[in-house]
């Protein structure tokens, strides 16, 4: 059974705890195994969900900070390099 985003928010509010980014994550409504595919299984379906998710950046930041070694976080597999700063941002280097 998958809960709607609205129901998750209502439950979080009713419990008295503050809403967390995970409460708004689209993956909370999907099969968790999709985000931890076994070797040789496609990651594309999970990445499509991530592309539409409003908390993608928070998810990726969490995974990087926590040192997650498995799964798809913020639309990236753990083997993919995280995106660096964009051109013209602090920390970027000119070519």
Which helices and strands occur, and which strands form pairs?
Layout: H1 5-15, H2 44-51, H3 56-66, E1 72-73, E2 76-77
Inertia-based shape: globular
Number of strands: 2
Oligomer: single chain
Order of helices and strands: HHHEE
Helix fraction by DSSP (H/I, runs of at least 4) = 25-40%
Radius of gyration, CA atoms, in whole angstroms: 16 Å
Q: How is the biggest beta sheet arranged?
A: 2 strands, antiparallel
Amino-to-carboxy terminus distance: 50 Å
Look at the structure and give the mean pLDDT.
Answer: 77
Give the class from helix and strand content and strand pairing: mainly alpha
Low-confidence stretches: 86-95
What strand line-up does the widest sheet have?
Answer: 1-2
* Number of separate structural domains: 1
What fraction of the residues are assigned to beta strands by DSSP?
Answer: under 5%
Give an account of the 3D structure.
Residues 86-95 have low confidence and may be disordered. This protein has one domain. Helix content is 32%, strand content 4%. It is mostly helical and 95 residues long. A hairpin with a 2-residue loop joins strand 1 (72-73) and strand 2. It has helices at residues 5-15, 44-51, 56-66; strands at residues 72-73, 76-77. The chain has a two-stranded antiparallel ribbon. It is globular and about 40 Å long. The longest helix is centred in the first third of the chain and has 11 residues, at 5-15.
């Amino acid at each position: 059974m998958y809960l709607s985003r609205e129901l998750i928010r209502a439950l979080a509010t009713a419990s008295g705890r503050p809403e967390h980014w995970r409460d708004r994550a689209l993956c909370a409504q999907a099969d968790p195994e999709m985000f931890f595919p076994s070797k040789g299984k496609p990651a594309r379906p999970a990445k499509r969900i991530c592309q539409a998710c409003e908390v993608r950046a928070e998810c990726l930041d969490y995974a990087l900070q926590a040192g997650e070694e498995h799964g798809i976080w913020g639309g990236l597999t753990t083997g993919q390099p995280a995106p660096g700063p964009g051109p013209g941002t602090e920390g970027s280097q000119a070519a």
